[in-house]
Amino acid sequence: MDSVQHGQPVSVQVCDACDARFDARDARVQCASCEGLLHVQHPQPPTCGVALRESFDARLLPARGPQGTGPGDSGVWRFRELVMPDARDEDLVTQGEGNTPLLARPRIAAWAGVDHLLLKHEGLNPTGSFKDRGMTVAITQARRINATAVACASTGNTSSALASYAALAGLRGLVLVPAGKVALGKLSQTIAYGAQTLLVRGDFDDCLRLCRQSSEQLGVYLANSINPWRLEGQKTIMFDLLQQLRWQSPDWLVLPAGNLGNTSAFGAALREARRLGLIDRAPRLACVQAAGSAPFAASFRDGFATRHTVRAETIATAIRIGDPASHERAVRAIRETDGVVLTVTDDEILEAKAIVDASGVGCEPASAASVAGTRKLVRDGTIQRGARVVALLTGHMLKDPEVMLAYHRDTEPAPACANRSIEIDATLAAVERVLRSGSDLS
């Protein structure tokens, strides 16, 4: 039942483990009684089903503000009733996030071995990753509770999103990243946006532990994906996708999996979409982990009887996480969608990335895990060639330029998809020789 305030139902935060309930503006991100994770429970929207779909669709062409930063420009706040229904326009910390494209690229589909493959490209958000969707909501909440500082642990994308949105809101940003293990593109963004960056001699899991302690003992507002409001924003990837497909679910949604925030958010979004009559069936979820960072895949193999942890190592830094915080929620999402969890090697990720990049799309290494995973699932017969598949690309290709350059320029022997540069003399004859060589660098 919805909580009521001043005669109106309001959102509440509820513990996953013990069902304890907390005010929507309580700054804690874990249960005060049992330390379980919290989720947000919203009041029933005034309309459901077709009427609710139509109200969302009507907002696709809003009156746009002069700077493109109003609520009508956001692919998150378009779904406000399902994200933060009582937020006022003046509360919102937004910069036009969401509204990311759904791309068809026949070359990538042919490589993956499936006839109908679409790419949902979250790398085209303002700071270059899907994290902007969650951060617009988390930082809006920080402003609503009068926080003075916000913090996160990160492998890179969360830190750049937090730094940007904290700057927009006029809040102090504090980010903890593992020293020497963050891609240069992401680290440079974080520094440039003005956040205080702490390089921790440890891994992501050490950074998250310190962030949790800082939240509990130093009073900073924690903006990692254990923050329930972050996941409210990330749910809108699914709502946006379903709207683009005219509210018809694909057969499969394939996504990279690290800390399992998206897996959890997608499970919640699909649960909500079915309950409210937005869709009549859900896609199957396929979570793809890097082989060197695959605790969730290990748990899936034993029927989730054990929660595995690992010391993570992969070239795909965005999913280099050994102890995913949203494990239990992700288990529920996989079970409810008859989903699967699998691994791909770093070599498979890099080959998939080369194919995506050379198709004019581009993505960071972790994103390419979804495309590599699709190919693997088609080859083992889990996904049928005629299935309708959407692969999620989570980050922009310039997030991790070192990996990209090393693959194409430095790896020996040259990988099959490497695009080697050619050094020439400053003569037209040298250019002509290259053209006559007939090299196809695509």
Compact summary:
With about 450 residues, the protein is an alpha/beta fold.
Q: What does this entry look like structurally?
A:
The chain is an alpha/beta fold and 442 residues long. The chain has two domains: 43 residues; 292 residues, 3-Layer(aba) Sandwich (Rossmann fold). The strands form four sheets. It has a six-stranded mixed β-sheet, with helices on both faces. Strands 10-9-8-11 form a four-stranded parallel β-sheet, with helices on both faces. Helix 3 packs parallel to helix 4 and helix 3 crosses helix 7. The radius of gyration is 22 Å and the shape is globular.
Helix-strand makeup class: alpha/beta
Number of domains: 2
**Stretches where pLDDT falls below 50 for ≥5 residues?**
none
Question: How is the main sheet built?
Answer: 6 strands, mixed
- Quaternary state reads single chain
Helix segment tally: 14
Task: Give Rg in angstroms.
Answer: 22 Å
Strand percentage lies at: 15-25%
Mean of residue pLDDT?
91
* Name of the top-level CATH class of the largest domain: Alpha Beta
CATH architecture name of the largest domain? 3-Layer(aba) Sandwich
Cα distance spanning the termini:
57 Å
Tell me the CATH topology of the largest domain: Rossmann fold
- Percent range for helical residues? 25-40%
